[in-house]
Amino acid sequence: MTNSKRTPYDGVVIAAPVTIPYVRYSIESAQWWIGRALSALVAQAGIKASDIDGLCVSSFTMGTDSGIGLTQHFGLCVRWLDTIPLGGASAIAALRKAARAVQAHDADIVACVAGDTNHVDSFRLTLENFSRFNQDAVYPYGAGGANASFALIARNYMRTFGVTREDVGRIAVAQRANALRNPHALMKTPLTIEQYLAARPISDPIHLFDCVMPCAGAEAFLVMRDETAASLGLRAARLLSTIERHNAFADDPMQVRGGWAMDVGELYAMAGVKPDDLDIVQTYDDYPVITMMQFEDLGFCNKGEGAEFVRQHDLTIDGDFPHNTSGGQLSVGQAGAAGAYLGLVEGLRQVLGTAGPTQVKNAKLGLASGFGMINYDRGLASGAAIFAGPSR
């Protein structure tokens, strides 16, 4: 690894990881869910709403609202504001921007929050209006939505590298085992590899347990400088490094790697750690094949070795490679843009030692990734962050 040329995140910390427990359907608005998350941030941090002077928000179901509308609605007066529409990459992008804002003293306490509702018809409407380019590419063939597009990616990846459904199924089964220890996970029953393999096809090779379940919920955290956290008496995680990349490897006919692969050396160099140093890993898991792709692109094994990596490791909370310890979106649920935050928020709890029943013993160093904005042949946005528990 080479030394990073980027300005380090010295003095930047992340505090008060918040989850508003998910529900399958909700008659409330996305704004209601986001408001609950903001209220929980204030309560957990022991601050006043007026202490928040930065806001970053992500949501698919706020309609025409953006962060600016929420400031008045929730009585916030901020001097730094952003709305990030990057789907599964939103949490990493929000963390990166908020970190630089507090580092430059453009804000002192930034609330990063994502939330979505799920009315009975919300998901269909979201898919219908997701991407004009996607519609133009796939609608003439009678396809639509993420499942069909990811099926093409999954089929090509599995064929290229000799990956079987059983290989990717191990990821989903391990995450379900983790979810059974998470009281907020929506999936409450065990999942065996036999049940995974026997599940009905959705868009082959995507079957039922490869798909995340749409739901409603919210996630959030605070970004601030270490002296601010100390003055508030808050335990906080230290931000060590991040990467972000969009429309990577555009010449690949079909996606077999994401933007992480372009910048993975920078991710570890900036943090001054190696992949083997990590205690917990939280990947963005809209489909298990994308998680396998990340095991390769994030440096845990070489390209094409993801299936063998999964065969050789125990991905459960008590295993040798604790991964998606909350159960991930595959078993907790995907609350829209909040799903982008799920892994990062869980990872923060892990290194802070506050994960409760999903806690990994002696977890000090974590990685969380993001992936989003699928067009017809690839996800366009990717990112990752490495963070550590408080210094002793």
Name of the CATH first level of the largest domain = Alpha Beta
Shape: globular
The separation of the N and C termini measures 27 Å
CATH homologous superfamily placement of the largest domain? Thiolase/Chalcone synthase
Radius of gyration: 19 Å
Low-confidence stretches: none
CATH topology name of the largest domain: Peroxisomal Thiolase, Chain A, domain 1
Order of H and E elements? EHEHEHEHHHHHEEEHEHEHHHHEE
Main-sheet strand order equals 3-2-4-7-1-8-11-10-9
Q: Please report the total strand number as a whole number.
A: 11
What is the makeup of the main sheet? 9 strands, mixed
Number of individual domains: 2
Separate helix tally: 14
* Estimated helix fraction: 25-40%
Query: What class would the helix/strand composition place it in?
Result: alpha/beta
- Architecture per CATH nomenclature, i.e. the level-2 architecture of the largest domain: 3-Layer(aba) Sandwich
SSE inventory with pairings:
Blueprint: E1 12-23, H1 30-45, E2 54-58, H2 67-73, E3 80-83, H3 90-103, E4 109-116, H4 122-128, H5 132-138, H6 146-161, H7 165-179, H8 193-198, E5 201-203, E6 206-207, E7 216-225, H9 226-232, E8 236-246, H10 260-271, E9 280-282, H11 288-297, H12 306-312, H13 328-332, H14 338-352, E10 365-374, E11 379-388
Parallel strand pairs: 2-3, 2-4, 9-10
Antiparallel strand pairs: 1-7, 1-8, 4-7, 5-6, 8-11, 10-11
